[in-house]
Specification:
This protein is mostly helical. It is built from five helices and four strands. The strands form two sheets. The protein has a two-stranded parallel sheet with strand order 1-4. A two-stranded antiparallel ribbon has the order 2-3. The longest helix is centred in the middle third of the chain and has 16 residues.
Length: about 130
């Protein structure tokens, strides 16, 4: 499942290329020193309008906050807000990108896994701090 955003549509050809089973297999080193196999073992990609999916909306929010946090030209008020967000728990979320794996969904759409994935972690942070007051 992927957000049917203009950003995804802009890079749709790249996504098709890295998930296309008709290209030769190759291993590429990532920036953190790990390796990823191409093509990625993706069975299918379904575009979802984020207005129709809370999970996709939530991931959009997390991605937006993360991108803004690393913007060097951020205004001081915005910088302080994002520092507060990071300090409230955003820094405890781990992310390691798309990794090839031999675990495939057993049905389409896939059934929900038992967390804690990134969405579960952030939900715990939000509701945990909300319930503390």
């Amino acid at each position: 499942m992927h957000d049917a955003s203009s950003n995804f549509l802009r890079y749709q050809e790249i996504w098709r290329n890295i998930t296309n089973n008709n290209v030769p297999e190759q291993i590429s080193r990532m920036g953190d020193g790990t390796y990823v196999e191409f093509p990625l073992r993706v069975i299918s990609t379904t575009e979802v309008d984020s207005r129709d999916s809370r999970s996709v909306q939530f991931c959009d929010i997390l991605a937006g906050l993360s991108v803004k946090h690393f913007n060097r030209e951020l205004k001081e008020d915005d910088r302080q807000f994002l520092n507060d967000v990071v300090g409230a728990g955003l820094d405890t979320i781990s992310y390691n990108g798309i990794r090839p794996n031999t675990t495939f969904p057993d049905k389409i759409p896939p059934k929900r896994l038992v967390g804690p994935d990134v969405v579960d972690q952030m939900t715990d942070i939000i509701f945990g701090s909300h319930n503390q007051s």
